Amino acid sequence: MSFKGTESYAGARDLPAIVSAAVALAEELGFPSSCRLEQGRLLHALAAGAGLIGETGTGCGVGLAWLVAGRRAGVPVVSVEHDAERAARVAELFAAVPDVEILQGDWTLINDRGPFDLLVVDGGGNGKRGAAVDPERLLRPGGALVIDDFTPMTAWPPVHDGRPDSARLDWLEHPALLGAEVRLAPDLATIVATRRP
């Protein structure tokens, strides 16, 4: 989820229909923190190569919609949302879309659904604090993990609020992962990591 992420779709054209519908739901519910347009395009591309896909922090389903629009036919997608109203509304939005499951509850529900080929983790799943998410449990060898909504790194080690950015370093130096930061916009970066064999 991104600060002012829903606003990033203002004036956007040629969006997949399911993405447009999810953005409209976010606007209706006054939910500002959808995944940004740049992040959505990355998720769309990554989904094309994945088998089982998981996501924590459904929000209003914008990131989920990008994943669904990019996946191959028959690839299942599981997403977890803690807010009951949002989970119910997103489940309605995706009700006619095959192989999509919305779980309502704590992000840890995802632990029983893996291992995944692609897992998108938001801050609600301690995406910014890697200790809680176990990539060796949740990813197949070679599977990809995506953690969004970082500011781009400008030095090594990365710094946040004048101190080493331990949240980012947790992922980039995780012994089970090969990770890299990808700059998506001047003010937005994502970490993409692959589980080592």
Structure write-up:
It is globular, with a radius of gyration of 16 Å. It has 197 residues and is of the alpha/beta class. It starts with 16 loop residues before the first helix and ends with a strand. The strands form two sheets. A seven-stranded mixed beta sheet has the order 3-2-1-4-5-9-8, sandwiched between helices. It contains six helices and nine strands, in the order ααβαβαββαβββαββ. Helices cover 27% and strands 27% of the residues. α1 packs antiparallel against α3, α1 packs antiparallel against α4 and α2 runs parallel beside α3.
The ordered H/E elements are HHEHEHEEHEEEHEE
Summarize the amount of helix as a percent range: 25-40%
The largest sheet is: 7 strands, mixed
Strand fraction equals: 25-35%
Tally of helical runs: 6
Total strand count, please?
9
Strand order of the largest sheet: 3-2-1-4-5-9-8
Average pLDDT over all residues: 91
Unreliable residue runs: none
Radius of gyration: 16 Å
Structural class designation: alpha/beta
Distance between the termini: 29 Å
Overall 3D shape: globular
Q: How would you summarize the topology of this molecule?
A:
Layout: H1 17-29, H2 37-47, E1 53-56, H3 62-70, E2 77-81, H4 84-93, E3 100-104, E4 116-121, H5 135-138, E5 139-150, E6 159-160, E7 163-164, H6 166-172, E8 177-185, E9 188-195
Parallel strand pairs: 1-2, 1-4, 2-3, 4-5
Antiparallel strand pairs: 5-9, 6-7, 8-9
Helix pairs in contact: 1-3, 1-4, 2-3
Tags for this model:
197 residues; alpha/beta; 7-stranded mixed β-sheet; two-stranded antiparallel ribbon; 6 helices; 9 strands; 27% helix; globular
